[in-house]
Sequence to fold (307 residues):
Amino acid sequence: MNRLLLSAALLTVVVFAHAQKYTLNGVEHETQIVPVVVSNFNGQTLSVAPKGKNKTVTLIRTSFSTPMDDYNALARPELKLGNIIGHPTLGWDDTDYRIPDIVPEFYDDRWVLNDVFYDGDYPVAIYGRAPGTEPLPWGESEKDISRRGRYPHLIMLVDSTKEVKKVYNTSQMTFPPKNRASDIDRQSVDWAVVKDGILYFSISGLMGFDKGQNAYVVAIDTATDKTLWVSKPNTCNTKNFLILDNSIICGFGDSGKPDFINVLNRFTGVQKQQLWVANAPNWLAIGSDGRLYVSLYNTHVAFKIVR
Fold:
């Protein structure tokens, strides 16, 4: 069974796309919205990689003693995570909120920009619900704290070579029950990158909400809108993942469960390596020395990358 047929047999993707327009800086832009619905969250990966794409990187644990906490990890000049634009990823305020000229802050009157990632072939923006204006118990509202979109479910491909921007709506990927309006807040897109025409994104949420079917990576062919694979659940809930050669490097951690760094084949979604870490991993970055650095819940680890 070839790759395309296997994908179609295992996964269901709804591609009843419709158009949506918005105006940015006085110019009207058109988008094509593609709802993404995956029928099986247990992890449906591809068994065979394209020729020459099977080998992935190998991680070897090393010693690393320089203090590095979660919020300042990405500010270290020797670490190169990628050019993240939009919400300042190092904190929860908007002191250096910057939006690229080609990205709308608001979309379809219901979606508000959460982040823009430049870590792939072109920018990818994610949008969530508008922050609430009702005062929280301590007096501030969600919007007072940050104007970012909450629990992003919308992924916009900001390819400047395309007249029509493509938008993937992942809100139907949340698990039932459907009768609770707040259920859409239970899962959200954490990171999204387009590499070689494939959209990779990670989605995670509250561990107890969806019977363990959570924290996974999805690959979609942006030319056909077909879902190529879905990783196994409990694979990726780090705040970012890294694409390196044929590999996706990510991590998973949660209270009461073992914490790991995982290496996936980016063409199949198959897990090729898993390394235990002491605490839940948060951010991953590659240093100028070529090593992988991972900030954990209350410490940090480093790995040599063998390519």
Remarks:
- Residues 1-16, 77-96, 176-181 have pLDDT under 50 and may be disordered.
- Helices lie at 3-10, 142-145.
- The CA atoms of residues 113 and 127 lie 4 Å apart.
